[in-house]
Amino acid sequence: MDEALNAIAVNNRRAAAHHPLAELRTEYSEIAKKAGYDDVMAYMRSDEHNYKVTEYLRRDAMEARADGAAACIVCPTEIAKQYCDKPIEILGIGNCVLEAMTPHLEIVGTREVFRQVYEVTGVKPEEIDLLMTNDFFMSSAFVAAEESGYIPAGQVWDYALAGRTAFDGDKPINTNGGRCSFGHAHAASGLADIYETVLQMRGLANERQVKKLPKTALIRGFGGGSHNLCAIILRTVE
Fold first, then answer.
1. 196 and 18 in contact (C-beta within 8 Å)?
2. What is the dihedral of CA 210, 236, 79, 176, to 10 degrees?
3. What's the rounded Cα separation, in Å, for the pair 22 and 110?
């Protein structure tokens, strides 16, 4: 688990390094070298530089709080092409709220919102080309990836270690760097994920553009005082 979370942190920072709006843009390889480490993963395992704050999570697997704002323009699909060449359609949304005492709150709620959004849209997990998810604790990305079926259950750690969840891998997750590198502006972060997703679906993400142009994307939001969870599926309008 430690190695997998560190691998995700390194890959997410690579993505953030290519994002002009990211809060943290210095790659860990450079940080490690300045600290006297030739091996970036040895630096990531260092209790001196990246100490543990829980049994599994290290300092750099926690959110990087930031100021920020986000907005999007929504209109009926039928008229969208009057305003842009490549509109993105909201196929459906799943939503639930669970009180904080619910055991395994995030897992239970995540499973439910994905069930809802797949049911309302008819989309299957194998159709998803890109996953964006709230990861204010980096392990949260594991939950979303497996509960959505985007990555087979019990295998996300292996995908992370192999670099497959990086922006240049075949199962990209959080191509803006996620909450721990892009930054977390709390209420603005969900729409910031929408912004990143649309850039990727339109092929406008420049150096961090994913290898396969996404046609269908899944976004999971999680947070707020009411412990609200949501899932949104976007698809490029042909």
1. no
2. -30
3. 26
Say how far apart CA 184 and CA 5 lie, in whole Å: 18
**Which residues of the chain carry a pLDDT beneath 50?**
none
CB count within 10 Å of CB 26 equals 12
Distance CA 178, CA 180 (A): 6
Residue 158, both tokens: 């292996």
**Rounded CA separation 33/16 (Å):** 18
Residue 227 has a pLDDT of: 75
Supply 63's token pair. 């959110």
| Both tokens assigned to 186 | 């709390």
Instruction: Cite the beta strand spans of the chain per DSSP E.
Output: 88-97, 130-133, 216-223, 228-236
Residues across the chain: 238
Q: Give pLDDT, residue 225.
A: 62
Enclosing H/E stretch for 121: helix 105-121
Element (H, E) at 4: helix 2-17
- Please give the pLDDT value at position 70: 93
The pair of structure tokens assigned to 84 is: 């842009």
Phi-psi region of 163 (alpha: psi -120 to 50; beta: other; left: phi over 0): left
What strands lie across the sheet with 228-236, from one edge to the other? 88-97, 228-236, 216-223, 130-133
φ, ψ dihedrals at 217, nearest 5°: -130, 150
CA distance 229 to 155: 23
Helix, strand, coil shares, percent, the chain, to 5: 40, 15, 45
